[in-house]
Write a structure and sequence with these properties.
CATH architecture: Orthogonal Bundle
CATH superfamily: MetI-like
CATH topology: MetI-like fold
Structural class: mainly alpha
Oligomer: single chain
Shape: globular
Number of strands: 0
């Protein structure tokens, strides 16, 4: 009995031990990010006298300068970093897929104009662009919401700006990948037949072209998430990302850096958030590589 393409892809994926272990690790991490901050909600923001306690039976990851449980805060920071990474990657997916599909299918002058716009954005220092965008919009939102008597909502708006700002600069490579796939697919017989039957451009792209690109799109999506998380962590490290009392892995690493002094090094404030970030990024990259090999039918069975 012959196997379906999905079954064959799953079989290829299972043979990749690094990808399987990475998937298991990410599932554990997501479960911890959901459960731990919920169970230990009081430990997230509770300020106590247990300042700078090293890891022990009560505090597995030690405590920070305010006596807060670092174990709970690391998982809370992981939740925020993962949410920002996934949502911004989905934003980049939506923009990049639509942009690349339209440019590739239309071709000609439309393709040239759309891709030259992408080239111009590529030439810009994207991190500087994100910093300027977030800073400008944040100040505008703070003034607007503050004048409306909603300062609390203004304080929570930074994470929404991260969604949009990071997603707005992460779609460029996605659009090029999708465009290349559409260019190779639009000359196929099934597309010509659909066009001959009078199908609209939107119908052909949505029903015939995009479904044949989802394999490589999903793979690139898994590789976009760690790059977005890294950018978010860098912005939070600079103080331009998540604001207290919220925390991301980047802001936790920044807090650990600020606690270092020549007299005493509180190593757990750096080691645990930094290790969690490094392992998460590594697992996402291994998972992306595994999906790429599994979804490629040319991979040796």
């Amino acid at each position: 009995m012959s196997k379906s393409p999905a079954q064959m892809a799953w079989q290829r994926f299972r043979r990749n031990r690094a990808a399987v272990l990475s998937g298991v690790f990410l599932l554990f991490l997501v479960a911890g990010a959901v459960i731990v901050p919920t169970v230990k909600r009081d430990a997230l923001e509770a300020i106590s006298d247990a300042q700078f306690h090293p890891p022990n039976a009560q505090y597995l990851f030690g405590t920070d300068v305010h006596g807060r449980d670092l174990f709970a805060r690391v998982f809370y920071g992981t939740r925020i970093s993962l949410v920002v990474g996934v949502v911004a990657a989905v934003v980049s997916l939506a923009i990049g897929v639509v942009w690349g599909a339209v440019a590739g299918y239309k071709g000609g002058r439309t393709d040239s104009i759309m891709m030259r716009f992408v080239d111009v954005l590529y030439a810009l220092p994207y991190l500087l662009f994100v910093i300027v965008l977030i800073t400008t919009l944040d100040e505008l939102l703070n003034k607007t919401l503050g004048s409306w008597g909603m300062p609390g909502l203004a304080a929570q708006s930074r994470i929404l700006l991260l969604f949009g700002g990071l997603g707005a600069v992460s779609w460029l490579t996605m659009s090029r990948i999708v465009r290349g796939q559409i260019l190779s697919l639009k000359a196929q017989t099934f597309v010509e037949a659909s066009r001959a039957q009078g199908a609209s451009t939107a119908h052909i792209i949505a029903r015939h072209l995009l479904p044949n690109t989802w394999g490589i799109v999903i793979v690139y999506l898994t590789l976009t998430i760690p790059s977005v998380m890294l950018m978010e962590s860098f912005l939070s490290f600079l103080g331009l990302g998540i604001r207290p009392p919220q925390a991301s892995l980047g802001s936790l690493i920044a807090d650990g850096k600020n606690a270092i002094n020549p007299i005493k090094i509180y190593w757990w404030l750096i080691v645990f958030p930094g290790s969690t970030m490094a392992l998460t990024l590594l697992a996402l990259n291994f998972l992306g590589d595994g999906l790429r090999d599994a979804l490629d039918p040319r991979t040796k069975k």
